[in-house]
User: Fold this.
Amino acid sequence: MKIVMLGAPGAGKGTQAKMIAAKYEVPHISTGDIFRANIKNGTELGRKAKEYMDQGLLVPDELTVDLVIDRLSQEDCKKGYILDGFPRTIPQAEALDAALAKRGEKMDYAIDVDVPDENIVNRMSGRRACTGCGATYHIVHNPSGKGDVCEVCGEVLVLRDDDKPETVQKRLTVYHDQTQPLIDYYTTQGILKAVDGTQDMNDVFTAITKILEA
Ligand code: ADP
Ligand code: AMP
Assistant:
């Protein structure tokens, strides 16, 4: 089962990807998480990626594509995976398809978690991310049972720098310009499935499982 999660920043891709990964026992691969881990560990990639992320811009394809393609060749990806936040540009999608084709494989589903821009700023200003394990909460819709710290690892929860309203607006513009065209790209391939991402997160998950089990 190979799945690409599509949707605006803050639409709920990561939330759903984690639930799908747990239910179907496939790895959840988030490029945003990979970049944030590199920033935390002070790597050269992290330093370069941060320059773009802090401005709400995409990290260049040259820094992103090989990273993901390498990750997909690891053993745990043999029975499938969920890509969250990749591809985000048409060249990334084409590079992914080319790498899959070389192995005689193809993507199975592109799931678009559809949330209008009006809801996004609220989603992102309320998002809290764990500085330890990367778990994600929402102060209203999905609060941590332990207040300001993570339920999973006990580390402190923060508002991501790129979730501040001024950066969110930029990220939405970038999404519409560079990422939304992927909806047509995967529609043409016949694998696009859209779900209404404004529903409660459990209802979104039910809609996705219906698609995957149809
Ligand atoms: P993405 O990975 O698309 O950027 P997230 O999964 O991190 O988005 O979700 C963004 C924020 O919205 C998080 O704070 C998350 O807890 C919250 N959220 C996710 N899905 C829903 C939902 N269906 N309803 C309300 N809030 C949600
Ligand atoms: P995310 O955690 O998916 O919201 O990603 C956070 C940020 O990481 C994005 O705003 C981009 O700056 C960067 N990023 C994540 N995935 C990609 C990608 N596939 N291509 C380019 N930049 C990315």
Q: What stands out?
A: The longest strand covers residues 109-114. Residues 77 and 206 are 24 Å apart (CA to CA).
